[in-house]
Amino acid sequence: MVLKDTTIRFGGYDLSSDHNEIAIARGAESLDATRFRTSGRQRRCGLMFWAFSGGGLVDLGDEGADEVLWGKVGLGNTLASFSPEDFTAGDVVHFGLANVLQYEPGAEVGKLYKFSIEGEGMDDILRGTVMENRAASNDGTGTPRELGAVSDTQKLYAGLHVLSATGSSPTLGVEIESDNAEGFSDPTTRGTFAQQTYKNGVYLTPVSGPFADTWWRITWTIGGSTPSFLFAVELAIK
């Protein structure tokens, strides 16, 4: 797979076109579990962790990489999403809460002004599905997708990126629904994001199972005077 349309989002900002490299790492701590009367070193997996690194070309304009990443260093708990594709609904996405620990811009004389970024995640990173990525000015319902059931040991995870909000007093409400069939004749609301009025990234408090429903969709309500939003929603079951 050749990376061409990779998507990188931090909070309410899409920094895909600023980057030309990105990497994420997922792992578990290695714990020493060696005891007396054993023939060799023993190990056990501990807590999960994830980290990311990347880089690209500095954009000093409004909402470019320099402004956004410089301001996020040390803040913690930013919704970060990485997809090797262009974030079309149905695409694979990796997402979670991230801490930007280091942003380093620089270059030699006569060279392109570049930056590098490093950070770590909170808890574990999730491998999920882009449910919606659209511009909308009216209420709507998204395409149903069969993601599977949530067992009694699993949770439903979701993230919302609001990339733009225009109009007078615009409001955006987003809900997650499930059903046992694609037709959604009897949908159940499984999660509700806090109402949004501006650019933002929101990580929904994980919802514990079990849910037998296997079909999922997103609904949204928009208010205000001549409102318009650009937003994306991602779901994962783990």
Task: Assign a percent range to the helix content.
Answer: under 10%
What is the top-level CATH class of the largest domain? Mainly Beta
Strand content: over 45%
Give the second-level CATH assignment, the architecture of the largest domain.
Answer: Beta Barrel
CATH topology of the largest domain: Elongation Factor Tu (Ef-tu), domain 3
Largest sheet: 15 strands, antiparallel
Structural class: mainly beta
Q: Could you list the spans in which at least 5 consecutive residues all have pLDDT below 50?
A: none
Domain count: the total is 2
The overall strand count is: 15
Question: What oligomeric state do the depicted chains represent?
Answer: single chain
What integer value in Å does the Rg equal?
20 Å
Outline type: flat
In whole angstroms, the N-to-C terminal distance is 26 Å
**Element-by-element helix/strand order:** EEEEHEEEEEEEEEEE
Mean residue pLDDT: 95
What's the total helix number? Answer: 1
Secondary structure elements and their pairing?
Layout: E1 7-10, E2 13-14, E3 19-32, E4 43-57, H1 65-72, E5 78-83, E6 92-106, E7 114-121, E8 126-136, E9 140-141, E10 145-146, E11 155-179, E12 188-192, E13 200-203, E14 207-208, E15 215-237
Question: Can you describe what's shown?
Answer:
The protein is mostly beta strands. The chain folds into two domains: 7-33 and 42-121, Elongation Factor Tu (Ef-tu), domain 3 (Beta Barrel); 131-237, Jelly Rolls (Sandwich). The chain contains one helix and 15 strands; from the N terminus they run ββββαβββββββββββ. It has a 15-stranded antiparallel sheet that branches. A hairpin with a 7-residue loop joins strand 6 and strand 7 (114-121). The longest helix is centred in the first third of the chain and has 8 residues, at 65-72. It is flat, with a radius of gyration of 20 Å. The mean pLDDT is 95.
